[in-house]
Amino acid sequence: MRSSRVVTFALWVGRVALAVTLLSAVADRFGLWGPYGSPRASWGDWAHFVAYCGVVNSFAPKALIPALAWIATGFEIVFGAGLLIGYKLEYVAYGSAGLFALFALAMTWSVGIKQPLSYSVFADAGGALLLGALVSVVKREGRSERGSYGVADAGARWVED
Questions:
Q1: Could you give the residue ranges of the DSSP H alpha helices within 30-45?
Q2: Which of 45, 65, 104, 111 is deepest in the core (most CB within 10 A)?
């Protein structure tokens, strides 16, 4: 019984941590953590984020950089909100893992391995992949014996088996 609570809590913590990571980055590029140069902001505004996007995607044509910035921002908003509310959690977790992995690979290609390691982007990708896998297993195990029920209590039921 105790381990089922731990699994349920771990699912919740993983979802919230990854969601906050994604949504905090979006908030920063729209100045919600303060203006550029302030202690809490990395970019502080859209222009500085687009410039950073150009550095990370140095292999892409310059004309595509603004579009890549908007695409990344859109995915971060969708995946962050999806993780937070738990909507289509398995797909959102796997999508987040893919987005983090692409970001880590682009960073590694453009600026070297140190920056994605320092910003824990590989760990975020791994955490999102693990979350998706756990949700997938919990969903499959739970539905095979008991019918359909929400992922929130699926962790508890899965561990009890």
A1: none
A2: 104
